[in-house]
Amino acid sequence: MDDRQFRNAMGKFATGVNVIATEVDGETYGMTANAFMSVSLDPKLIVISIGDKAKMLERIRESGKFSVNVLSCEQQEESMRFAGQKQFEDKFEFDELAGVPVVENAVCQLSCEVYNEHTEGDHVLFIGKVNDLAMTEADPLIFNCGKYRRLEAMEEVK
C-alpha cells in the first residue's frame, strides 16, 4: 500500500478537531491536531501525537507544558488558522488556564504538563498529565474523509 492509500484509510475514522497550544519565552503557539486520546484516570493522563518535523515538537519539549482544546462546531476558522489552511492578519488572542494558553469557547480545554514522551515512527507521542480543565456546552467540530462535519443525533436502535 502507498502513503496516500494509508492516509485515506485513516481518514475514514471520524475524529474531533483540537488545537494544541504552548508558550515559549512569552510567545504563544498553536497547532491543529486530531491525534488525541485519554490514557488514564489515575493519574489523569492524555496523549497527543506530533510529527517529528513539526515546529510544535521542540516548543512543547522546551516549555514542558501544553493545552488540548477540543474545538466546537462553531470554530472551524480556528482549526483552519492553526492548520495553516487560511491566513489571517490579526494575531490570535489566547485565554489562560492553569498557566497554559487555551482557546476561548472550546468545548473542552485541558491544561497539561509533559509526563512522558515516546518516539514512534515519524511522530512523537506526548503523554500529558492533566492539571486542570474547563468545559462548555457545545457540539464538537468533527473531521472525516478530509472534510469538516457536525454531529447529528441518531435514533436509538431497539
From TrEMBL:
Q: What Pfam families does its record include?
A: Flavin_Reduct
UniProt cross-references to Gene3D superfamilies, sorted A to Z? Electron Transport, Fmn-binding Protein, Chain A
InterPro entries per record: Flavin_Rdtase-like_dom, NADH-dep_flavin_reductase, Split_barrel_FMN-bd
The Flavin reductase like domain is annotated at 10-150
Q: Which domain of life is it from?
A: Bacteria
| Key words of the record | Oxidoreductase
Which PANTHER family does this UniProt record tie to the protein? FLAVIN REDUCTASE (PTHR30466), FMN REDUCTASE (NADH) RUTF (PTHR30466:SF1)
Instruction: Give the protein's recorded name.
Output: Flavin reductase (DIM6/NTAB) family NADH-FMN oxidoreductase RutF
Say which species the protein is native to: Salinicoccus halitifaciens
